[in-house]
């Protein structure tokens, strides 16, 4: 056995990858035939399964618009002039070229069958729980290989990135070639959508395509009619278990896209594409279905979280940018949403911990909840930063909740350190956001956040940096980049604290007036202590610009990065200079 195979075997044993017997592969995918919510036979491309549930209303029947009168086949995954003008003719099946048939990474010699099987099992066991993408009972190695070489290659590439980096480069390049071929041919299928998404979760730091890739995947699904999905009724049709799992496979992927779409919108301020429908709102019933898998609970948690906040956040953000709007006008809505996030977290952590205590799901739910609470409470803080008349004493509770949420995110990294290594890139971006916020709020409100709280901030950042630094040989250079970033932030924060101490040690500065209240004087419930009094108007510290962290130049506390694709710029490191994977022959 080669060295790389030995490494893969140890990883498979460590993370519980199954050892199902290897089955010989005979069939190839036909990605030219759209997966229109059906089971598609990979050899013929003909529909052979049951349709997922798409609403067909009276309005659709009597529709006099082009969507109602033109050839329906042309409007459902096969939109072309030829199909529109050939309604009464049998569609001409395009013959696949020899090059299209030679896309299987095993047949191309990129990886051995046994190693491919081991990598695939490791992906299903270790990585898939983070993204809730594939059904382990449906997506066996043989099934995926027979359905889609693109999906198989994407799974193997991301698994190699985590467990056998020697194979990663050629598998990743092959996956990207297949992505280009799919786009060039205009192929559409559920497996193509899943492959595209898998390539975005653990992308390269310089990859800036996630916004367009997710948008392209959503357009494929809409072309296949998924936006018309309706809640499933068990008595509607008679289906085999395989047909039911394939139907849930479509539904699960649409839920995943809804969460992804709303998450990107929340982070970047760009509009979302997927509307909230009755099907989306029925997520909890879907999670409790008889064929639900453990990962569906995490998907249910994320879907309900986006349902709770996605409509209200844009409203709050718009109000926060109106300088004439007082915080009291938005306080009730912020309080309402904060309570809903807290109840959401309690409910879904209880559900996932009841299933298993060793899953990454509790970490993800708590981390996403803390992150959303941080974003929520930074919206009213925007008014404090841009106003010359705001009194921080009046809003100390808002500062405290935001501070606590950011600190909690970093502490969760240390608490659940065993799950950090394989976390998708969004976790790293959120971690950087929490550290950025703590630095900025400590500097901007230096008169109010002092003493022990400053030390607590620095300690939390340093501990999180150590956690990421300890993740050697993990899924990518992301942990190394994150560790370096947090170490720089902690160092700058320490330097700033040292500069603040020197004037205080030199005696009074000559500033008259009451002593400003600090967050250190808050009681455990977040309110001012009984013996604290006095007020001080907000002043920006003069040494804010001395911190060499670019995002601190912002005039608000919005998400500090344009989108989660700005990795290399955010961490100011070239990943080509980072080498921590052992090189083998």
UniProtKB/TrEMBL annotation:
Positions of region (Disordered): 1-68, 497-539
UniProt GO BP: DNA-templated transcription
Residue stretches of biased makeup (Polar residues): 39-50
UniProt KW Metal-binding keyword: no
Entry keyword Transcription regulation: yes
A GO molecular-function annotation: transcription cis-regulatory region binding
One Gene Ontology cellular component: nucleus
InterPro entries (UniProt xref): prtT (IPR051089), XnlR_reg_dom (IPR007219)
UniProt keyword annotations, A-Z: DNA-binding, Nucleus, Transcription, Transcription regulation
Compartmental location: Nucleus
Signal peptide: none
Span of domain Xylanolytic transcriptional activator regulatory: 210-286
PANTHER family: FINGER DOMAIN PROTEIN, PUTATIVE-RELATED (PTHR31845), ZN(II)2CYS6 TRANSCRIPTION FACTOR (EUROFUNG) (PTHR31845:SF17)
Protein name, as recorded: Xylanolytic transcriptional activator regulatory domain-containing protein
């Amino acid at each position: 056995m080669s060295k790389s195979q030995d490494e893969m075997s140890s990883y498979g044993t460590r993370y519980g990858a199954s050892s199902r017997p290897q089955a010989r592969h005979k069939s190839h995918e036909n990605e030219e035939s759209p997966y229109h919510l059906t089971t598609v036979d990979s050899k013929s491309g003909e529909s052979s399964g049951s349709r997922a549930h798409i609403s067909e209303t009276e309005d659709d029947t009597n529709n006099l618009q082009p969507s109602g009168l033109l050839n329906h086949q042309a409007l459902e995954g096969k939109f072309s002039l030829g199909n529109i003008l050939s309604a009464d003719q049998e569609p001409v099946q395009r013959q696949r070229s020899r090059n299209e048939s030679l896309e299987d990474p095993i047949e191309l010699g990129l990886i051995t069958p046994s190693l491919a099987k081991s990598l695939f099992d490791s992906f299903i066991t270790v990585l898939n729980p983070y993204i809730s993408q594939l059904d382990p009972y449906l997506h066996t190695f043989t099934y995926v290989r027979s359905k889609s070489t693109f999906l198989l290659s994407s799974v193997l590439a991301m698994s190699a990135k985590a467990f056998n980096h020697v194979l990663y480069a050629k598998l990743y390049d092959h996956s990207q070639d297949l992505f280009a071929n799919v786009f060039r041919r205009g192929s559409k299928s559920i497996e193509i959508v899943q492959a595209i998404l898998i390539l975005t979760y653990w992308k390269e730091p310089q990859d800036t395509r996630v916004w367009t890739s997710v948008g392209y995947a959503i357009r494929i699904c809409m072309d296949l009619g998924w936006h018309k999905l309706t809640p499933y009724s068990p008595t509607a049709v008679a289906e085999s278990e395989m047909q039911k799992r394939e139907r849930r496979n479509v539904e699960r992927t649409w839920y995943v896209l809804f969460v992804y779409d709303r998450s990107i919108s929340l982070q970047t301020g760009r509009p979302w594409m997927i509307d909230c429908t009755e099907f989306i709102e029925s997520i909890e019933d879907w999670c409790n279905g008889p064929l639900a898998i453990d990962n569906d609970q995490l998907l249910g948690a994320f879907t309900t979280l986006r349902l709770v906040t996605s409509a209200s956040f844009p409203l709050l953000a718009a109000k926060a940018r109106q300088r004439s709007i007082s915080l009291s006008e938005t306080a009730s809505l912020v309080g309402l949403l904060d309570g809903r996030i807290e109840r959401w977290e309690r409910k879904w952590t209880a559900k996932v911990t009841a299933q298993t205590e060793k899953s990454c799901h509790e970490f993800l739910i708590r981390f996403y909840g803390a992150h959303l609470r941080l974003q929520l409470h930074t919206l009213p803080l925007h008014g404090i930063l841009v106003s010359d008349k705001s009194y921080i004493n009046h809003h100390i509770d808002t500062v405290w909740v935001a501070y606590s949420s950011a600190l909690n995110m970093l502490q969760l990294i240390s608490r659940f350190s065993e799950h950090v290594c394989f976390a998708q890139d969004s976790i790293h971006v959120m971690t950087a956001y929490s550290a950025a916020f703590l630095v900025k709020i400590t500097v901007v409100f230096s008169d109010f956040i002092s003493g022990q709280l400053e030390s607590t901030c620095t300690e939390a950042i340093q501990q999180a940096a150590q956690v990421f630094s300890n993740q050697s040989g993990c899924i990518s250079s992301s942990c190394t980049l994150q560790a370096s970033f947090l170490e720089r932030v902690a160092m700058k924060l320490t330097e700033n604290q040292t500069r603040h101490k020197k004037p205080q040690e030199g005696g009074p500065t000559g500033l008259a007036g009451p002593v400003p209240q600090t967050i250190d004087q808050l009681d455990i419930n977040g309110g001012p202590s009984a013996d604290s009094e006095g007020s001080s108007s907000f002043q920006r510290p003069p040494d804010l610009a001395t911190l060499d962290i670019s995002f601190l130049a912002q005039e608000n506390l919005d998400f500090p990065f344009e989108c989660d694709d700005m990795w290399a710029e955010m961490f100011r490191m070239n990943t080509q200079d980072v080498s921590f994977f052992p090189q083998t022959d």
